[in-house]
Amino acid sequence: MKAWRRPRAEPAEPVPADTIESLMARLDAAAQVRLGRTLAIRHVNTGSCNGCELELRALSNVLYDLERFGLRFVDTPRHADILLVTGPLTRNLRVALEQAWDATPDPKWVIAVGDCAIDGGLFKESYAVLGGTGLSVPVDLTISGCPPSPTQVLAGLRALLEVNAR
Amino acid sequence: MTGEPAARATDVEGEAPPPGRPPLRHMLSPQDWIATAQTAAEDSWVLLAHWAEPAAVHALYLDPATPGVVPVSIAIEAGAYPALSPLLPAAALYERMILDLFGHVPGGAVDPRPWLDHGAWPSEHPMAAPSAPRTDRPAPAARAEQPDAMILPLGPIGRPIGEAALLRLTLDGPVIRRADSRLGFTHKGTLALMRNKSPRTAARFAARLSGDATVAHGLAFAEAAETAVGTAAPPRAARLRVVMLELERIAGHLDTIAEVSRLAGAASMRAACQLLREILLRACHFAFGHRLMMDCVVPGGVAVDLTPDGASALLQALGAVAARLPALRRDHEGVVPGARLSGTGRAGRALAESLGVGGVAGRAAGRAFDARVGFMPGYRTLAVTPAVRPAGDAAARQAVRIAEIGASLRLVSSVLEPLPPGPLTVALPQVCGEGIGCAESIRGDVWHWLRIDHGQITAAFPRDPGWALWPLATALLQDSVTDDVELIRASLALPASGMDL
């Protein structure tokens, strides 16, 4: 009796190559649709008066419902695709912004939200303020307003989502 | 005390100042300066604000017995002045700010470490005249820690969407043995930017001290400017200011309740509050042209009138809040937030009084101070009863907020109809003067002081409630556990920008 020496399971048939190819194409398309259309956002405050933060917080209320677009706020720049920067760039927060930018994996985007983040706004003459976000890290998109409404912020984020999906 | 009429030449000490007239500021000798602080500590006066100019240092006390405010000053001698912090712990943060900005050394201060200055500004003491180029200031010795102490730093970029501040917690397992705060990250040089500008121009900086208290800061600043030049806002503007301040309070409280509910695991409460807040902000945008009503209050009156259908849009939004309020109250008393909130971050009344904590945090700890009662001219004919709770914990603060939303709803409805007709602004005369104004913001009493010289601001100081809330927060965090840190912060609605100046 040598039956126990050999496994009873029959050798598997080779997978047809055309099935592999068609499945790979379908998975690729699905990943583009399902995974390519999601972006993680880290908010970075570089000296804001808290006005922009109020409107950013409003983005998660049931009327705007940010997450239905695949956009979500994350706790660390290491998990982020987007740095959402608010406030004039104060001298005391420049290093913090640069550290957050360094910690964000490529590819990454920086969005300057609000008039202050664009060029320092009302505070650009001050000894304590350097100016806009762009003086420290490269900015990809600006959203103006003091503060910009949640609708404006959402429009900017969705535009970036479209670009990302292409 | 030797009184010296610094406010207006016609003031006579001893007479009660007429409404709208600033209280006399007393110029004190060093002995009287300390004697006043001793009296303040003994008679439970509250240090409301403590600030400086290139040649003098000022303090503003609240005498709860009168009640009234007492501004006092002391001249700087040889770059120094006697510190108040050994007698009044609430003065410690102000003294660090004064040293950083003006270079005045508080003699005998309890805490010599820098506060706003992180070593990144181009000059040292930027508000001093003349400001000195930066030299390497010897770093003060760090407090001795146990060699094996575990330090947990939170911030400055910490919370998902919030203000920039640093909390440094010394841990023993999950228990916080010592909490230390460091602010100044969002210092924007507001005091320097306000100088040599007209009140109307400088009001834009006052409106951007703190986004969710923009009406309160704008209003306190406007009233200080109006008092300084001896005028007052027209009746219609005064009523619209009340409407805006109460709308800001309802929206701000809803935001804080939503955030605390999220952390306490009450998701439906959070969703409901956020929705109500959004409905209210949209109505504000429709009625006043700005969701947060930023720049709507200006010195001399208000910048915008209600749009034709604005009043009905506001009343409709307020109706939505009122309809949901009983359910909100029921949810708050339910098991889910209650188990998490009761007993968390408990502040005693004595602590709140010694630090001068007003607003929701003060009233939830039994200190019945509300600047709307007796200090704000616009509320003179309106009945405001402070909502007071004795417990002092996060649950009490939620309860006070819910009660205040109800009170503000009634207040706005009674003021909106009918609004008195008439102009929206008066021109400010180009004269000299000094003034103090105040407003009750969502976090507590905001005080603004300024001096005007022929229509130009020569010195100003805004006192944000944060000056009292941060010392309270570090005291409450001590001996609590790390799991409660976010909840305590949210429940106090800790600000940063307003006190970073």
UniProtKB/TrEMBL annotation, chain A:
Residues 49-160 form the NADH:ubiquinone oxidoreductase-like 20kDa subunit domain. InterPro entries: Complex_I_20kDa-like, NADH_UbQ_OxRdtase-like_20kDa. One of its GO terms (molecular function) is 4 iron, 4 sulfur cluster binding. Its cofactor is [4Fe-4S] cluster. Keywords: 4Fe-4S, Cell membrane, Iron, Iron-sulfur, Membrane, Metal-binding. It comes from the Bacteria. Belongs to the complex I 20 kDa subunit family. PANTHER family: FORMATE HYDROGENLYASE SUBUNIT 7-RELATED, HYDROGENASE-4 COMPONENT I. This is Hydrogenase. It comes from Rhodopila globiformis.
UniProtKB/TrEMBL annotation, chain B:
Residues 128-143 have a biased composition (Low complexity). The keyword Isomerase does not apply. It comes from the Bacteria. InterPro entries: ComplexI_49kDa-like, NADH_Q_OxRdtase_suD, NADH_quin_OxRdtase_su_C/D-like, NiFe-Hase_large. Pfam families: Complex1_49kDa. GO terms for molecular function: NAD binding; oxidoreductase activity, acting on NAD(P)H; quinone binding. Residues 265-429 form the NADH-quinone oxidoreductase subunit D domain. This is NADH-quinone oxidoreductase subunit D domain-containing protein. Residues 1-27, 121-143 are annotated as: Disordered. Keywords: Oxidoreductase.
